[in-house]
Design brief:
By secondary structure, the chain is an alpha+beta fold. 34% of the residues are buried. The longest helix is centred in the N-terminal third of the chain and has 22 residues. A five-stranded mixed β-sheet has the order 2-13-10-3-9. The chain has a five-stranded antiparallel β-sheet with strand order 16-15-14-17-18, with helices on one face. 36% of the residues lie in helices and 22% in strands. Helix 3 crosses helix 9. A hairpin with a 6-residue loop joins strand 17 and strand 18. The protein is globular and about 90 Å long. The chain has five domains: 154 residues, Nucleic acid-binding proteins (OB fold (Dihydrolipoamide Acetyltransferase, E2P), Beta Barrel); 244 residues, DNA ligase/mRNA capping enzyme (D-amino Acid Aminotransferase, Chain A, domain 1); 78 residues, DNA polymerase, domain 1, CATH 1.10.150.20; 87 residues, Orthogonal Bundle (DNA polymerase, domain 1); 68 residues, BRCT domain (Rossmann fold, 3-Layer(aba) Sandwich). The structure holds 2-(butylsulfanyl)adenosine. 2-(butylsulfanyl)adenosine (IVH) binds next to strand 3, strand 8 and strand 13.
């Protein structure tokens, strides 16, 4: 070996072990200056002898050191998911919805692209002046993990863009996946090394990408397909087709099965073609994604909460199998719902071993007529929990009796009654609230989970242990653990030493400063999930304003209530649940105890620099340039509130031809009336 080669190998090794000590063990062995000197020497040697650059060289990770716990990267443009279509009819409905939203006649040309939906994990690659500067996982769609070093080890991720014409800032998004053949080889190697096999290529891809040591990722057969983009400093195409062609020119792998179509018949025909080709593609796909081809139309269509209006995933049919019901267990969820779960004789369905299936609720058990020992047909579709479809052969056993008391705390079980319809809900719930250990523990597990407070080192197992010892009964208790450690002595517990106890307390403290929406989501109120929590936070901006308004929520004609109801996407169910939650003194106490421990960050208003931000607008009459939905969505995206009726609070009435009583009322109330064109000029 040449001296240079030896020196490069030695430097690489020194830097990697320094990285490991620094990032994984929080125990740096070198001073910053010594570390930098090593990197500098390595870079100089590599520059002088490019043929000696090792694939796993620490310099090949675009200057970003591998991160033990992964830093966070905020997505400047959220990474959304897709709505699903399951039938040809769903696809026609999607096309019709797009036409309606755009006010296009059914005969107007409207092109869509169709391409396979890759079953991997999505990633975002940011390029500045053609150079890869960072790479992130999707995370919760708003914030992902910084896996730059790992992503840059993929051959299909260009470190430098080729070709011409890329925008200065360009964020390419796509899917990281593993081929079937590579997956088999990888699993054979796992077995040989005495390690357990990966369940499927997607899990293998996720596991390989989230390695602390990028050289492990480098040794894994990960690939990347580019299919969309996030932040860009300048538009670079007019259509989806053109954009993807550009990506290919710049050095990305793009899917060869992508094509352009003029309507639902062609789209569905292509879907069938891809479904037929599926087994021979060599990688997992779970459907076909359709996208409106014209980017100008995509921009007009925009998004609804978590998915674009301009795209849909047409999912492949579920895979089925026949097996036997060995037991029916009842699980109690965080909202007290009792869910029957069928324990099955394990069976492989679509490459995955299935041993549990949901039976949903008592009505479903009755409808299916299932009981112990029955042979049943089950199905599994994508990530969805497997379901029982029908009884194939009934056993001689007695019918299943749904419990009338909670299997965890023995409290009576009841069903909610819908106020509007008077109908009883099919879901039975434990009536014991947070006094039921299952609900308390599950609520706490939700509270600390990744999408909520995301407390490192505090997972289901730890929460259960703390709960059993009576140390954490409600969220606020988490934040007083450190102060109580003189009694608790966490460092003496099995599985905890001085270091891990200190780490846990630090991880908890790191979450005292937290966004408004996460706190609200963390409360686990029914129907107030991630999206609604964000909407509510954006509406109130500060926690204090929200907290001051909640008592008003008991009054359905209060400003607080009406204001929330006016938010696009918020429904009666969520509002009712929110009001119901805060009607309970013990809940209010739990919340106030928690928030006393926190510094809650204000939410950002959707857009505040537009002329209509914060204004209330009513649309009436026939709109000629846009559909009512599009006009409403546009106004909301600019921060305006759209209301259905004129009141003193209305700032603008946008009146098209045929406007009647609302126009009269607005004129009488002195509300500013605009034509559609005047409105467009205002928001331009
Ligand atoms: S487009 C705004 N195209 O599917 C969302 N997504 O279920 C744009 N996916 O999060 C996504 N193949 O990870 C798009 N050809 C494809 C895809 C694809 C797989 C994933 C993606 C997305 C998920 C939604």
């Amino acid at each position: 070996m040449s001296d240079e080669k030896k020196r490069i190998a030695w430097l690489s090794q020194e830097i990697r072990s320094a990285d490991a000590l620094y990032y994984q063990d929080d125990n740096p062995a070198l001073s910053d200056a010594d570390y930098d000197a090593l990197r500098k020497e390595l870079l100089a040697l590599e520059a002088a002898h490019p043929h000696l650059i090792r694939k796993d060289s620490p310099t090949q990770s675009v200057g970003v050191k591998p991160s033990g716990k992964f830093g966070k990267i905020k997505h400047t443009v959220p990474m959304l998911s897709l709505d699903n279509a399951f039938s040809d009819e769903d696809v026609s409905d999607f096309v019709a919805r797009v036409q309606r939203f755009l006010s296009l006649p059914a005969t107007a040309p409207l092109a869509f692209t169709a391409e396979p939906k890759i079953d991997g994990l999505s990633a975002a690659l940011r390029y500045e002046n053609g150079k890869l500067v960072s790479g992130a996982t999707r995370g919760d769609g708003q914030v992902g993990e910084d896996v730059t070093a790992n992503l840059s080890t993929l051959d299909t991720v260009p470190k430098q863009l080729s070709g011409l014409g890329w925008p200065e800032v360009l964020e390419i998004r796509g899917e990281v996946y593993i081929n079937h053949a590579d997956f088999d080889t990888m699993n054979a190697a796992q077995l040989k090394a005495g390690k357990s096999e990966y369940k499927n290529p997607r899990n293998a891809a996720a596991g390989s990408l989230r390695q602390i040591d990028p050289s492990v990722t480098a040794s894994r057969p990960l690939k990347f397909f580019a299919y969309t983009w996030g932040e860009v400093s300048a538009p670079f195409a007019k259509t989806q087709m053109e954009a993807v062609a550009k990506m290919a020119e710049w050095g990305f792998s793009v899917n060869p099965q992508m094509r352009r179509h003029d309507g639902p018949e062609e789209m569905v025909a292509h879907y069938t073609e891809i479904l037929t080709a599926r087994a021979g593609l060599g990688y997992d796909i779970d459907g076909v994604v359709y996208k409106v081809d014209a980017l100008a139309l995509q921009a007009r269509l925009g998004f609804v909460s978590r998915a674009p209006r301009w795209a849909i995933a047409h999912k492949f049919p579920a895979e089925k199998a026949i097996t036997t019901i060995e037991a029916i267990d009842i699980q109690v969820g965080r909202t007290g719902s009792l869910t029957p779960v069928a324990r099955l004789t394990p069976i492989t369905v679509g490459g995955v071993v299935v041993s549990n299936a949901t039976l949903h609720n008592a009505d479903e058990i009755a409808r299916l007529g299932v009981k112990l020992g029955d042979s049943v047909e089950i199905q599994r579709a994508g990530d969805v929990i497997p379901q029982v479809l029908r009884v194939v052969e009934a056993s001689a056993g007695a019918p299943f009796k749904f419990p009338s008391t909670c299997p965890v705390c023995d409290a009576p079980v009841s069903a909610e009654v819908d106020e509007k319809t008077g109908k009883q809900d099919v879901v039975r719930r434990c009536t014991n609230g947070l006094s039921c250990p299952a609900q308390a523990v599950q609520s706490l597990v939700h509270f600390v989970s990744r999408q909520v407070f995301d407390i490192d080192g505090l997972g289901e197992r730890q929460v259960e242990a703390f709960f059993e010892k009576g140390l954490i009964k409600e969220p606020a208790d988490i934040f007083t653990l450190r102060a109580r450690n003189d009694e608790i002595k966490l460092e003496t517990w099995e599985g905890f030493g001085e270091t891990s106890a200190a780490k846990l307390f630090d991880a908890i403290d790191a979450r005292r400063d937290i966004p408004f929406d996460r706190v609200l989501y963390g409360l686990g109120i029914r129907h107030v999930g991630r999206t609604n929590s964000r909407l509510i936070a954006q509406h109130f901006i500060s926690w204090n304003k929200f907290r001051a308004a909640v008592s008003d929520l008991q009054n359905p004609v209060s400003d607080a209530y009406m204001g929330l109801l006016g938010i696009d996407g918020m429904g009666q169910a969520a509002l009712g649940a929110l009001a119901g939650f805060f009607a309970s003194d013990s809940n209010v106490e739990i919340v106030d105890k928690l928030t006393a421990q926190l510094t809650i960050q204000d939410a950002e208003a959707p857009t505040s620099d537009s002329a209509v931000a914060g204004k209330t607008v009513v649309f009436t009459g026939k709109l000629e340039r846009f559909s009512r939905d599009e006009a409403k969505a546009r106004a909301q995206s600019l921060g305006a509130k759209v209301s259905g009726s004129v009141s003193k609070k209305t700032d603008y009435l946008v009146a098209g031809p045929g406007a009647g009583s609302k126009l009269k009322k607005a004129e009488a109330a002195g509300v500013k009336v605009l034509t559609e064109d005047e409105w467009l000029a205002l928001i331009a």
